[in-house]
């Protein structure tokens, strides 16, 4: 049987591998545009949209409009971001979910709720054991940001695909994947212990804005930064860089020596 040399080969296996790569990218990086995904996978815009459409049809990802604050201006349709749904996350491999859930239920039955809380605290302590606590307190934004970066690195090493980003007068720790999300849905003590440990390490109160266990696209922890009082204006009425949002962000990024993801 002859094969039309001009026809593009159709491979279900190849399509499956590509869609797995798309899902893996969204797990690691969080919501992304078709252009971001195509650039990472070396695919054309049309090629990557075919796979995105298939994943949307299967309920594994969803599309949402990019915030106008961060969207690129130009002609054409507004840019969209794609992110995993609970169905998509449910298809990821969680080999020990059933075993871990059963073990946690047994622990609660035998030793009570406090034993579960103690286990959750021990677990996050082990993950961030190499992160030095911020001894400067919340009055030093640079120290808070550096500690947040270190927490993100430790979480990534433990499989959480975490990073930090500046948002307004604060910094957010974003965990784009949770290897224990299914268990944490039943045992929120795991998330509560993380939040408490972050507070201890950062030396300032933090707020959990979203969790994958609750169906959100990422676990997001907001860390407020102290805002320095503006300096008195000089005779020529010039403004110091600390009064400028862009100058302030640049100073904070430079002080930590780390490149952070822009909020978008």
Automatic annotation (TrEMBL):
InterPro entries cross-referenced by the UniProt entry: ArsR-like_HTH (IPR011991), Carb_Metab_HTH_regulators (IPR050313), WH-like_DNA-bd_sf (IPR036388), WH_DNA-bd_sf (IPR036390)
Highest rank taxon of the organism: Bacteria
Region annotation (Disordered) ranges: 230-264
Biased composition (Polar residues): 241-257
Stored CDD domains: HTH_ARSR
PANTHER family for the chain: HTH-TYPE TRANSCRIPTIONAL REGULATOR SRLR-RELATED, TRANSCRIPTIONAL REGULATORY PROTEIN-RELATED
Protein name in UniProt: Transcriptional regulator, ArsR family
Native source species: Williamsia maris
